Amino acid sequence: MAGKKRCQFTGEQQCNSAALRIVGSCPHCRHDYCGNHRLPEHHACTNLQDCRQQAFERNKAKLESERTVAPKMAMA
Protein backbone atom coordinates (compact mmCIF):
# COMPACT_ATOMS: atom_id res chain seq x y z
CA MET A 1 0.00 0.00 0.00
CA ALA A 2 1.38 3.38 -0.97
CA GLY A 3 2.04 6.02 1.68
CA LYS A 4 0.14 9.28 1.94
CA LYS A 5 0.90 11.92 -0.67
CA ARG A 6 2.71 14.84 0.88
CA CYS A 7 2.39 18.53 0.10
CA GLN A 8 4.75 19.49 -2.73
CA PHE A 9 5.35 23.01 -1.45
CA THR A 10 9.04 23.90 -1.47
CA GLY A 11 9.40 27.38 -0.03
CA GLU A 12 11.73 28.42 2.78
CA GLN A 13 11.26 24.94 4.20
CA GLN A 14 9.44 21.92 2.81
CA CYS A 15 5.92 21.23 4.05
CA ASN A 16 5.38 17.74 5.52
CA SER A 17 1.58 17.94 5.73
CA ALA A 18 -0.58 15.44 3.87
CA ALA A 19 -1.91 16.63 0.51
CA LEU A 20 -5.67 17.03 0.18
CA ARG A 21 -7.26 14.46 -2.11
CA ILE A 22 -9.79 16.48 -4.11
CA VAL A 23 -9.17 20.19 -3.64
CA GLY A 24 -5.41 19.95 -3.05
CA SER A 25 -4.48 19.42 -6.70
CA CYS A 26 -3.58 22.65 -8.50
CA PRO A 27 -5.15 22.71 -11.98
CA HIS A 28 -2.44 25.07 -13.25
CA CYS A 29 0.81 23.34 -12.25
CA ARG A 30 -0.60 19.82 -11.57
CA HIS A 31 1.01 19.46 -8.13
CA ASP A 32 -0.64 18.30 -4.91
CA TYR A 33 -0.78 20.57 -1.85
CA CYS A 34 -2.08 20.61 1.72
CA GLY A 35 -4.87 22.90 2.93
CA ASN A 36 -2.45 25.75 3.66
CA HIS A 37 -0.78 25.75 0.22
CA ARG A 38 -3.61 24.66 -2.11
CA LEU A 39 -4.32 28.15 -3.50
CA PRO A 40 -2.09 29.28 -6.39
CA GLU A 41 -1.14 32.45 -4.51
CA HIS A 42 0.05 30.43 -1.49
CA HIS A 43 2.39 28.05 -3.32
CA ALA A 44 3.84 30.54 -5.82
CA CYS A 45 2.30 28.71 -8.76
CA THR A 46 4.49 28.91 -11.85
CA ASN A 47 1.44 29.31 -14.10
CA LEU A 48 -0.32 31.97 -12.01
CA GLN A 49 0.38 34.80 -14.46
CA ASP A 50 -1.01 32.72 -17.36
CA CYS A 51 -4.09 31.93 -15.27
CA ARG A 52 -4.68 35.61 -14.51
CA GLN A 53 -4.22 36.58 -18.18
CA GLN A 54 -6.73 33.94 -19.32
CA ALA A 55 -9.26 35.10 -16.71
CA PHE A 56 -8.73 38.71 -17.83
CA GLU A 57 -9.33 37.78 -21.49
CA ARG A 58 -12.50 35.81 -20.65
CA ASN A 59 -13.86 38.70 -18.57
CA LYS A 60 -12.98 41.22 -21.28
CA ALA A 61 -14.78 39.18 -23.97
CA LYS A 62 -17.86 38.79 -21.75
CA LEU A 63 -18.03 42.50 -20.96
CA GLU A 64 -17.59 43.48 -24.60
CA SER A 65 -20.37 41.10 -25.67
CA GLU A 66 -22.75 42.74 -23.15
CA ARG A 67 -21.90 46.30 -24.10
CA THR A 68 -24.84 48.52 -24.99
CA VAL A 69 -24.47 50.30 -28.33
CA ALA A 70 -26.27 53.42 -29.55
CA PRO A 71 -28.59 51.71 -32.13
CA LYS A 72 -30.01 49.44 -29.44
CA MET A 73 -30.75 52.42 -27.21
CA ALA A 74 -32.55 54.32 -30.01
CA MET A 75 -34.93 51.40 -30.62
CA ALA A 76 -35.96 51.00 -26.99
UniProtKB/TrEMBL annotation:
<dbReference type="Pfam" id="PF01428">
    <property type="entry name" value="zf-AN1"/>
</dbReference>
<keyword id="KW-0862">Zinc</keyword>
<feature type="domain" description="AN1-type">
    <location>
        <begin position="7"/>
        <end position="50"/>
    </location>
</feature>
<keyword id="KW-0863">Zinc-finger</keyword>
<dbReference type="GO" id="GO:0008270">
    <property type="term" value="F:zinc ion binding"/>
</dbReference>
<dbReference type="InterPro" id="IPR035896">
    <property type="entry name" value="AN1-like_Znf"/>
</dbReference>
<keyword id="KW-0479">Metal-binding</keyword>
<protein>
    <recommendedName>
        <fullName>AN1-type domain-containing protein</fullName>
    </recommendedName>
</protein>
<dbReference type="InterPro" id="IPR000058">
    <property type="entry name" value="Znf_AN1"/>
</dbReference>
